[in-house]
Model the fold of this input.
Amino acid sequence: MSNDQGNDGYGIMVFKPETPPGVKARGIIFFIVFCLIILIQAFYWLFANSVEPMVWGMPFGMFFIVLFIAIEFVALLILYFAEAKDLAEGGGS
Done:
């Protein structure tokens, strides 16, 4: 949303007006991915509500949580390196 819509400067601006479309798309995709990861972790008991099977010496419910924490960490690393690459190329401020 832009501030030039005649709303006296009020409103929500998700991205700066000069943000390239690729960066906007990446931001939206990562936002959706992280929201899904958080929702899956919040409702893990629907998927992993059991002690059996044991995976790497952990009950399955605990393994499920550890797995999604690891997935979130990898996604954050990918986002970090993508943002660092944009900054190195001079694409961000």
